[in-house]
Design goal:
Structural class: alpha+beta
Distance between the termini: 48 Å
Strand content: 15-25%
Strand order of the largest sheet: 5-8-9-12-15-14-13
Number of helices: 15
Radius of gyration: 23 Å
Oligomer: single chain
């Protein structure tokens, strides 16, 4: 999405307190000329070796000789790409712009961030479902091929989706404005008084560098009770603009279809939702990572989640906080009206709502965090990354794999000797 919104404002001192980082160690992280950086992320002390600049310039990932020079053994390679990530790096990654504001193309910095040292791909929201066998278009075996020999660069369907993500968010923003205007009341008699939609680059986990999640947005809701209590609720947002609904009309809901995406029985759960399984997996990964990120980094509140003090005091002792227990799955279809009226109505199965306005028709499904499901899928994906993908990534770097090959009978040790 091409947005000029400010990225996350981070209070580094607070984050260092959370992770128990000393000033001297923090200074070392910012020294990019050093090839060995000592970090203490609050869990362990490690030595992280950084690639020399000339390796990046020459393209180490495309030159077996340079690759072997940097990673003499598989153990060296594995140790380096699985090192914990410094807090400064997590902050920097979260502040990246995903798309160029002028061209709407993905920024080179963000694309690079999706890899570790630009040689190993992270597990992302878009690839998670295929890796764990919950994407009808992509198996774990095909995921290996896509990771080792990426070839897909997009088509008219993905271009359409990317182009209209801002339209989807605009329609969602209008809906939330209406909620505030109507003084929406929740089940505990809190009144919605304001909201914000924030944007991030890529969210990382300090101890799980193989994971990376780039959200479409984060909705922050601000609520107040008549007894004076307040609460802040963070919700992940995911926007989809399916090519198949580019000619959608409201009357189609009664004549042809029930939802913008078909109802699906989500495997490994008892849920039926108008959400494809791969997107359900994507959101579970996102909520898992955001919960970890937000709870360890209260400092992000300085810009992205606070509002005017006369509206709500987020720093008050009696202010409750909920971290990404839900994701708002928002599916957009083009507008067919120019009137300012907003029409809100449930879908036939009563598990989503439609919002129709001059900005388009959106279907909103609330997807709850499923800790058991997320933990099981993350374990499966991590095993795939560690035991299937990573060894082959090393073989490819050493020049042992032929193009589009995802297995080898060659002995790495023999080759390197």
């Amino acid at each position: 999405m091409s947005r000029n919104s400010n990225m996350i404002s981070q209070n580094i001192n607070v984050i260092k307190d959370i992770f128990n980082i000393s000033d001297s160690e923090s200074d070392k992280w910012s020294n990019t000329n050093s090839t060995a950086t000592s970090i203490n992320d609050g869990f362990s002390s490690q030595q992280i070796l950084l690639l020399e600049p000339e390796f990046e310039e020459k393209g180490i990932h495309n030159c077996p000789q340079l690759f072997r020079q940097q990673f003499p053994t598989y153990d060296d390679f594995k140790k380096l790409v699985t090192q914990p990530i410094s807090v400064n790096e997590i902050v920097r990654m979260a502040n990246l712009e995903q798309h160029d504001a002028q061209t709407n193309e993905a920024t080179e910095e963000w694309l690079t961030a999706r890899k570790i040292l630009n040689v190993v791909q992270r597990i992302s929201g878009s690839t998670f479902g295929g890796i764990v066998g919950m994407n009808k278009y992509c198996s774990s075996q095909k995921s290996l091929m896509n990771y080792l020999w990426p070839s897909f660069t997009g088509n008219q369907m993905t271009a359409y989706g990317n182009h209209h993500e801002d339209d989807c968010e605009a329609a969602f923003d209008l809906y939330n404005q209406q909620r505030v205007k109507n003084k929406e009341i929740d089940c505990n008699n809190f009144v919605l008084v304001d909201f914000k939609i924030s944007h991030f680059g890529i969210i990382l986990d300090a101890l799980k560098p193989h994971l990376g999640y780039s959200p479409d947005g984060m909705l922050t809701e601000f609520w107040r009770h008549n007894n004076g209590r307040t609460k802040v609720v963070y919700k992940l947002t995911e926007y989809k603009c399916p090519w198949s609904r580019r000619k959608f009309k409201l009357q189609d809901l009664t004549k042809k279809i029930d939802d913008l995406y078909p109802q699906n029985c989500i495997k490994h759960t008892n849920l039926v939702l108008p959400v494809p399984e791969s997107y359900y997996c994507q959101m579970q990964l996102g909520m898992t990572m955001f919960q970890q990120y937000l709870t360890r980094s209260e400092a992000i509140n300085t810009k992205h989640t606070t509002i005017e003090k006369d509206t709500i005091d987020c720093d008050a002792v009696d202010c409750d906080t909920t971290y990404c227990a839900e994701c708002m799955f928002v599916v957009w279809a083009p507008p067919e009206t120019t009137t300012s009226a907003i029409k809100i109505f449930p879908n036939r199965q009563k598990n989503a709502i439609f919002v129709s306005s001059k900005l388009g028709t959106i279907e909103i499904t609330k997807v709850s965090y499923n800790k058991e499901f997320a933990s099981k899928m993350l374990k499966t994906a991590t095993q795939w990354w560690s035991h299937e993908y990573l060894p082959l990534a090393y073989e490819k770097g050493c020049g042992l794999l032929q193009t589009n090959e995802i297995s080898t009978t060659k002995n790495i040790i023999d080759i390197l000797l």
